[in-house]
Design a protein that fits this description.
The complex is a heterodimer of chains A (166) and B (526).
Chain A: H1 24-55, H2 58-81, E1 87-90, H3 95-105, E2 110-111, E3 120-126, E4 136-142, E5 147-149
Parallel strand pairs in A: 1-2, 1-3
Antiparallel strand pairs in A: 3-4, 4-5
Helix pairs in contact in A: 2-3
Chain B: H1 3-26, H2 30-54, H3 58-79, H4 97-117, H5 128-143, H6 145-152, H7 167-179, H8 184-224, E1 226-228, H9 235-255, H10 265-281, H11 286-300, H12 304-328, H13 335-348, H14 350-358, H15 374-386, H16 392-412, H17 418-438, H18 443-454, H19 456-477, E2 481-484, H20 516-523
Antiparallel strand pairs in B: 1-2
Classes of the chains: A alpha/beta (166), B mainly alpha (526).
């Protein structure tokens, strides 16, 4: 592939006459500035390449897998409590839990802050053992007062879920 | 369908939809390969807008708009045969070997570095904004008009930024519906690939600058009838390829983990930087203007700060073109240029206006009442931004010294004045800083969670400025004579001027005077 005009198209007009200064001092300064600029670019590139390779390493890989599994676990539990497309509320009592749970609920249900409209109030509660997602479980409080814990998702371990950079 | 083949299929679909408009605007050039999927993403954004306002499925709208765009291009070519597709040309006898291999070397350089930068996709993590904004918007659009409209107006999810432009949401929704794979992973991979295409397109400007500098150096020697040392003619083009490859790495380094975890900041920042490079550093006419137009559209349809910055770039490109037109034809008002600029601004303002009309939920970056006075917020903003803009400590002094010493060489090799890029950088930076200073909530928290991404654009812009000076400096350094003689160096597209018979030297035969007026038209100061 080449640049330029098509076969049926005239060449572009000739560029204006050019005059580059040929003094030794200017050529040396030009090369010096080019070297400084290239040096900065190389330094930035090396740092970037190292970071990119690091982000593909085994630690990053296991962290990413754990993150996906954690949210998959919460999504399965939420699915066992409320059907898709329903209007639900998420408790704001714990802002951290709220931020985590809305990421699971928002893609599948309609969020509301109006208790009268929601079929259930969802919260993230701490619970250890099987049936929990890294020590948490989704709990639904329905309009009739009944309370149920989510099922269908389980991720053993009590460690905190991988931090998500903002 | 698993994620890798689904991602390939999605890119092919986007590129297919965007290919004809890109060929019409840019021609069949290496950069067109990176632009085609980006143009397809613009069509997906328009499809999402149509789905939201008129109803129907986003994928049906995408197909319809793709066909409509292709038909419009074909009708245009048929009605104006002189404006037909630019298929390039075969090798010319006057093309040097480097002229022929430069596109391939450049493409190889930026592709290899982009693949290296995308290696983090081996561990595709889903970022916070990816879940709460971009993939969520994609699910709205994938679910159709009714769901998308009611979700857009729902204030219950304050961090969803419901009124953000639709390019990412529309593109991911189309990819999910086309491939049948509705995973977060596919969305993240697709956004990372769009980031890479944007970075490659922007970096390609360095290849073009290097090629342009090489030709001007060749023209210089042809004009003076002098013989350059071996390799000197090729030095600027090689520098352009090296700089382009390094810029790809640097761009991904600036974005860090947010380049591959479903964030869209690198996409608009790279597109805005590329638009500056093609529209304000390169001549900004013909194919270069076409590249800038596609990149401006992507930047403007990706994020709110991208829309604002794209508007600044449009104003600068229109201003530069209007000023050139006035210098070329004194006394005639450049109405066409001004109207085109106004039309571009109106198009960029279309989405925000639509969001106001539809009553979209307000964007909430930080909750709570405004804290701090303007001065304290400005100081915090400055400190936070400075921490991510260390590159300016290199770019500013380099640009000042190089502008003083190499400014004339820059004009001579046909590269636009540095001030245009700095004006765009300052405009984008001040817009974002102004939002922090005048916005709501706790600015310290807001800055801590966003400033590393909102500074992507000025950081990339500064790196591109550094890269451009590296190429111009190489071109100046490449001007060297080994021996005087009746030598004519002729390169593609650069007809050699007549050279006086007999031995010619720089001292014996002074070079023709520089056509200052002509140069001023092309490379006037902002």
């Amino acid at each position: 592939m080449t640049w330029g005009p098509g076969p049926d198209r005239p060449d572009p007009p000739a560029p204006p006459p050019v005059r580059l200064d040929r003094s030794l001092a200017l050529r040396l300064v030009g090369l010096g500035l080019a070297l400084i600029a290239l040096g900065a670019l190389v330094a930035g590139s090396v740092h970037a390449a190292r970071s990119a390779v690091g982000r593909a390493g085994p630690v990053a890989l296991s962290s990413a897998r754990l993150d996906v599994a954690y949210y998959g676990c919460l999504a399965a539990q939420t699915g066992s409590l409320v059907g898709p497309g329903l209007v639900v509320d998420v408790s704001t009592a714990d802002p951290g839990a709220w931020a985590t749970l809305v990421k699971v609920v928002a893609p599948r249900d309609v969020l509301t802050t109006d208790e009268g409209r929601s079929v259930a109030l969802l919260t993230l509660a701490r619970r250890r053992g099987p049936g929990a997602c890294l020590g948490s479980v989704v709990v639904a409080r329905y309009r009739d007062g009944s309370v149920r814990a989510g099922t269908g998702g389980s991720l053993p371990g009590d460690e905190a879920p991988p931090p998500t950079p903002l | 369908m698993s994620t890798p083949p689904a991602a390939v299929l999605a890119v092919v679909v986007l590129a297919t939809a965007g290919s004809l408009p890109v060929v019409a605007l840019v021609g069949l050039r290496p950069v067109s390969a990176a632009l085609a999927p980006l143009a397809g993403a613009v069509l997906a954004a328009l499809a999402a807008s149509a789905c939201l306002t008129l109803g129907g499925s986003v994928v049906v709208w995408f197909v319809l708009l793709g066909l409509l765009a292709a038909a419009a291009v074909l009708v245009y070519w048929r009605s104006r045969p002189d404006a037909g597709p630019d298929w390039g040309h075969g090798p010319r006898p006057t093309d040097s070997r480097l002229d022929r291999v430069t596109p391939w070397l450049g493409a190889a350089g930026v592709t290899v570095t982009a693949v290296l930068s995308l290696s983090a996709l081996r561990a595709p993590s889903v970022g916070f904004d990816a879940r709460t904004i971009w993939l969520l918007h994609a699910r709205w659009f994938a679910a159709g008009h009714q769901v998308a409209l009611s979700a857009l107006q729902n204030p219950a999810l304050p961090f969803a930024h419901a009124s953000y432009p639709p390019l990412i949401g529309g593109t991911v929704a189309v990819s999910w519906l086309v491939t049948g794979n509705r995973s977060d992973e596919l969305g993240v991979v697709l956004i990372a690939l769009l980031n890479a295409f944007a970075v490659i397109a922007a970096a390609w400007s360095a290849v073009e600058v290097g090629r342009r500098c090489g030709r001007r150096v060749a023209a210089h020697h042809a004009q003076h009838g002098t013989r350059p040392r071996r390799g000197r003619l090729e030095a600027p083009a090689v520098a352009g390829i090296v700089v382009a490859s390094l810029l790809v790495l640097v761009a991904f380094g600036v974005a860090g983990p947010f380049a591959t975890d479903g964030y869209a900041d690198l996409l608009w920042a790279a597109c805005a930087t590329g638009a500056i490079a093609f529209g304000l550093v390169l001549p900004g006419r013909g194919p270069e203007l076409g590249v800038a137009a596609v990149l401006v559209a992507v930047a403007g349809l990706t994020k709110n700060e991208g829309t604002a910055t794209a508007m600044v770039i449009v104003v600068l490109i229109a201003g530069r073109a209007a000023r050139s037109a006035r210098l070329t034809r004194p006394g005639a008002a450049p109405w066409r240029t001004l109207l085109a600029g106004a039309a571009a601004l109106a198009a960029l303002g279309g989405w925000p206006l639509l969001m106001l009309t539809l009553g979209a939920a307000r964007n909430v970056a930080v909750l709570g009442a405004r804290q701090g006075d303007p001065w304290s917020r400005a100081r915090l903003t400055f400190d936070a931004m400075a921490g991510h803009l260390g590159v300016l400590a290199v770019a500013i002094p380099l640009a000042i010294v190089a502008g003083l010493v190499l400014g004339r060489a820059r004009r001579a090799v046909g590269v636009g004045h540095d001030g245009w890029a700095w004006a765009a950088l300052a405009g984008g930076l001040l817009l974002v800083a102004g939002v922090y200073v005048t916005g709501a909530g706790n600015v310290a928290f807001w800055l801590a969670t966003s400033v590393h991404r909102t500074t992507d654009f000025p950081a990339l812009c500064a790196w591109w400025i550094i890269g451009t000076w590296a190429i111009v400096g190489t071109a100046q350094g490449a001007v060297h004579l080994t021996s005087a003689g009746p030598v004519t160096v002729q390169r593609a597209g650069v007809p050699a001027p007549p050279v006086a018979a007999g031995p010619v030297s720089a001292s014996a035969a002074p070079p023709p005077a520089l056509d200052e007026d002509h140069t001023a038209v092309l490379h006037h100061h902002p």
